[in-house]
Specification:
Blueprint lengths: L18 H12 L4 H5 L5 E4 L15 E15 L5 E9 L2 E7 L3 H4 L8 E9 L6 E3 L2 E4 L2 H4 L5 E4 L4 H5 L4 H15 L10 H7 L4 H9 L4 H33 L10 H10 L6 H14 L6 E6 L5 H14 L3 E5 L3 H14 L7 E4 L5 H13 L4 E4 L13 E6 L7 H6 L10 E6 L5 H7 L4 E5 L10 E6 L3 H13 L3 E5 L7 H18 L7 E4 L5 H12 L5 E4 L12 E6 L7 H8 L10 E6 L5 H12 L3 H12 L7 H4 L13 H17 L9 H9 L12
Helix pairs in contact: 8-9, 9-24, 10-12, 11-12, 21-22
The site of magnesium ion has 4 residues, from α12.
């Protein structure tokens, strides 16, 4: 499809109605350089421009209305900070409506003329009895605008700069018409194999591209959408699945043939508990990867507290037994430190050398650590992002583990590949943030997946209670009770960058109020937040872990991984300000011992609808997967942890939440094709082969198998 004489590769400047100046603007604002880029600038909405409503029959709500009205008054009103707004009054024979613009006043104002008739399009907002539209679309009534050819007109996203350069949605639609005219008679390359198009009853790519912009009716629009969404999701899956195949065919791995002495000694002497069925199963899955001769790339998913750390450790022991170095990387200093401490404890007496590396390890300590690492005398390196820095050199890294993968980017995972020669190390990534199936098959689609779907026995559900400020004294009394039973308590405050100063103040106030209720020396308290120096943080954390303080007041720095089994209460202040997965992670800090644990969500009295839903979900269930489903419903997939970093969801037309069915179909069809023709040799699949060949950068090492 990259052929030079392809009309779609004509620079956009040469489209009727564009020219050099607008071409510049289109490129800057929308990334449109060629015909083909404009062609896939899809409408984000369509409006039925054939029916007009009357002012007296429309009301506030989410629906969009189209009116035909006369403007009878307009004025610019100067506000504070030199900001002015434009206010206009429009009427039809049934009533009156106010139109308001806060932005773009400069260029809207000259378009509106008193006494003239306009087509007005927007949402009704209420306010003191008058009907209002804020930032409505507006178009003068002309022969053309009233009697449109197609029933559904496209609405395109634009920017303020485009608007002021005369390229509003309507102008873009005009350009799109010109484009359609230019390419009507040309070939537009079909990407999907003919037999797939037939089997799924899809329309051709060319037809879909025409109909997506100018559908004559709902059926045409649906057919176009289905076709283009399928195509997009299909090629996303092709990219993931084919890369997995290429990797498995071509990327050899070190053979960890034996389970040796260290593993066995650990298993029989150090492990204090029976592994859960799920832990045993995933350990087997990992073991079979490690001896296969192919590089492992496995995701280990398991809810908070499901016992991933032991599995990680046993995996590392296998690596060490086979003569290799291993490393485990965590997203925060505290978590890395904690892994270091708990792993050190678990391997005591096994004759294993363990090292710790973070940005705070400096000078001679770092120098000698790096030297031992390169000499091969360190078996396990625990650390933060520092581990992947280029100055960190291993003697023979055979296995790398990434904890809380969603905090790292795909790039960081990839950079571990180069830490070892001649082969890349085996890679195990772990995440405690359960994500819905549809999402994981997209963002982790190139990994094999193991799931720990069982908690260690004896875990009790964490009682989750929602309280508002009026119940604070009750809370204090409850905390006092728990402390008298010998338990420990977390109190967590939100801290976000935008309101950092105020948040830190809140934390400080909260700390002082707790001091007031739980005075020294009878009670001892720790405080931890991200702005503290690392040694101070560690000191405070350590005191809490050793049980020398009963209360830890902190920000979310403790969110992941911290393990203090004696802590039974998690109080989350301003719970309404946290996201669902964050609340769930925080709650996972308690309930790690044998005692009944509690999570108390403190919030203000008045809550938004979404905040209420988040809090109710937490109260209703402890199940991480259920929570992640609700989370995705509320936030949309683009905002889920791990998604943005993956960059995989920069989808043009589909939405993996709404298009779950199409996604699953695309995945199944793609899998079937690759199952029978993994190197795309079958002539029936030649279009797919062409696609891969012309998008080589998306398919690493393709050349090695094709
Ligand atoms: P996570 O999956 O959140 O990383 P951890 O590995 O930190 O979970 O384990 C949580 C706690 O459960 C730890 O204190 C660990 O020692 C304990 N644990 C892990 N596996 C088992 C098991 N099979 N039986 C009992 N306790 C276990
Ligand atoms: Mg963990």
């Amino acid at each position: 499809m990259n052929s030079e004489n392809d009309i779609l590769f004509t620079p956009i400047e040469f489209l009727k109605g564009v020219g050099p100046k607008r071409a510049e603007l289109l490129k800057k604002e929308l990334g449109i350089s060629f015909f083909q880029d404009l062609l896939v600038h899809f409408p984000f909405r369509y409006v039925d421009r054939t029916t007009f409503r009357r002012i007296n029959e429309i009301n506030e709500g989410s629906a969009l209305f189209q009116l035909k009205c006369r403007i009878i008054d307009k004025q610019i009103i100067k506000g504070a900070n030199n900001r002015s707004r434009l206010q206009a009054v429009a009427v039809d024979d049934t009533g009156m409506i106010e139109l308001l613009w806060f932005q773009g006043v400069k260029w809207i104002d000259p378009v509106i003329e008193n006494g003239k008739e306009y087509i007005i399009f927007g949402k009704i907002e209420s306010g003191f009895g008058t009907k209002k539209m804020i930032h409505p679309e507006l178009e003068p009534v002309t022969e053309d605008s009233v009697n449109r050819k197609s029933i559904l007109s496209p609405v395109y996203s634009t920017t303020e700069k485009l608007n002021s350069g005369g390229l509003n949605s309507r102008a873009l639609a005009k350009l799109m018409e010109n484009l359609m005219f230019r390419i009507e008679l040309s070939e537009i390359e079909e990407f999907l194999p003919e037999y797939i198009i037939k089997r799924l009853n899809l329309i051709t790519r060319k037809k879909a591209l025409f109909q997506i912009h100018f559908p004559k009716n709902d059926e045409q629009l649906d057919a176009a959408k289905t076709r283009l969404k399928f195509e997009e999701l299909f090629f996303l899956q092709l990219r993931l699945l084919l890369n997995k195949i290429i990797r498995k065919k071509k990327i050899k791995g070190y053979v960890f043939g034996q389970v040796g002495q260290k593993f066995n000694e650990f298993y029989s002497e150090k492990l204090k508990f029976e592994l859960t069925g799920a832990q045993k199963r995933v350990t087997k899955e990992i073991r079979s990867d490690l001896r296969s001769g192919i590089q492992m790339n496995r995701l280990l998913q398991g809810d908070v507290g499901s016992g991933k750390t032991i599995v990680a450790l046993m995996t590392m022991l296998i690596g060490i037994d086979n003569g290799y170095q291993t490393c485990i990387m965590a997203p925060t200093e505290i978590l890395a430190q904690q892994h270091f401490n708990s792993i050190s404890e678990l391997i005591k007496g096994l004759g294993i050398n363990i090292g710790f590396l973070s940005g705070n390890i400096k000078g001679n300590v770092r120098k000698s650590l790096l030297a031992s690492l390169e000499a091969g005398s360190i078996d396990i390196l625990v650390g933060t992002h520092a581990v992947i820095e280029s100055w960190v050199k291993f003697h023979n890294l055979g296995l790398a583990i990434i904890d809380e993968q969603h905090r790292f980017g795909v790039k960081q995972r990839a950079s571990l590949w180069h830490k070892s020669k001649p082969l890349p190390p085996h890679i195990l990534v772990m995440t405690a943030t359960p994500i819905p199936r549809t999402l994981s098959m997209t963002i982790y689609g190139d990994l094999d997946v193991s799931v720990i779907d069982e908690l260690p026995p004896g875990r009790k559900n964490i009682d989750t209670i929602h309280l508002n400020e009026s119940k604070r004294l009750k809370l204090i009394k409850f905390l006092g009770n728990q402390i008298s039973l010998g338990r420990q308590i977390y109190v967590v405050y939100p801290l976000i960058e935008e309101s950092e100063k105020m948040d830190l103040q809140n934390l400080q106030d909260g700390y002082e109020s707790m001091l007031h209720h739980f005075p020294r020396p009878e009670y001892q308290m720790s405080i931890v937040h991200g702005k503290m120096k690392s040694p101070d943080k560690d000191f405070e954390m350590q005191r809490f872990k050793e049980g020398r303080t009963q209360i830890l007041v902190s920000t979310t720095v403790i969110e992941v991984g911290v393990d203090v089994p004696n802590a039974t209460v998690m109080v989350i202040e301003n719970a309404e300000r946290f996201g669902l997965s964050q609340l769930h992670q925080l709650r996972g800090r308690v309930g790690r011992g044998a005692e009944q644990s509690y999570c108390i969500l403190m919030s203000s009295y008045k809550l938004s609808k979404d905040a209420k839903e988040r809090i109710n979900t937490m109260v209703r269930t402890n199940n991480g997967f259920e929570i992640s489903e609700v989370d995705m419903q509320l936030r949309g997939p683009g905002d889920m942890e791990g998604v943005r970093q993956s960059g995989l969801l920069d989808l043009k037309i589909s939405n993996i939440l709404e298009d779950e069915k199409i996604l699953k179909l695309a995945r199944t069809v793609c899998q079937e094709i690759l199952d029978s023709d993994s190197s795309l040799q079958n002539p029936a699949n030649v279009r797919l082969k062409n696609y891969v060949n012309s998008n080589r950068s998306l398919f690493s090492s393709w050349g090695r198998i094709s």
